[in-house]
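Throughout our pipeline, every protein is held as a single compact record rather than as scattered files. Nothing more is needed to write down the fold, since each code stands for a local backbone conformation. The record that follows is passed on verbatim for readers who wish to inspect the format.
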Amino acid sequence: MVIVSSRSGISCWRTENATQSQDEITTRRDMFKTSGLRWSSPRTSLWAGEMANERLRAALLEKGVSIAELAEAIEVDPKTVERWITQGRQPYRRHRFATASFLGVDETYLWPQALSREQVIAASESEVVTIYPHRWIMPRDTWGRLFSEATQNIDILVYVGMFLAEDAGIIRLLKDKAAAGVRLRVLLGDPESPVVIQRSADEGIGEQAIAAKIRNVMALYAPLSEVGEFRMHGTVLYNSIYRADDQVLVNTHVYGELAANAPVLHLRRVAGGDMVTTYLSSFEKVWAGARPIQF
């Protein structure tokens, strides 16, 4: 066990093994020094019983941000930030929001107990921009307007998404966005996957129909292969997800119905809301288990 201490408290960092080499301890000591926390070795510190905020500590380390830098950015005293970390103190809501925005994470991730159930429900309801009863009823320019507003991330999770791949304007927009620095990630279904074959049969269009469409779509996306990231997945697709930064279009899927006939939710992230976060987390899980496409 490695223990980190500060003027206002002590917190523990548990390791998989009961003992560590001196090199491991030195490495962790250097990491915490860069974050603004003072280090004490296991021989000179004691557990003080405080509940450290390991999520906030990890977010600082991941972003390479020191306590002093965060404190300056959100206009609080560095000792205050240190207490948030080492003692698990809960900041005022304006400071929680400012911290989460600065670090690029969700407020509810850093402080899961900060909002009441009623507040989370109210915030999540506010994330719903509109609901379309069917995808086919949506205005044709919805997808273009969504992706055109992206400045950081465009994520697409589908089995096929033929309606996008066949749209030359969308393909050009995606290429331009990726070339401008927006991270473009596309997940397509694996045409050999049993779940893809089963979905095709469930929709009543023949077992190999969706697989054939996927191979066609891969050819249509080939011009984007140098600027975007493409992977193939074999997961059960409960929803198709189309993301542009903090906005998400979720095409739900209904057994026995084509995706175009299923409802679509248009969501926009709101501080304290959980809906957008849930769908983005699902995307990341599928992405992590998918394999790169060779065009």
The two ends are 47 Å apart (CA to CA). DSSP finds 13 helices and ten strands in the chain. Residues 1-22, 24-29, 38-49 have pLDDT under 50 and may be disordered. The CA atoms of residues 157 and 179 lie 20 Å apart.
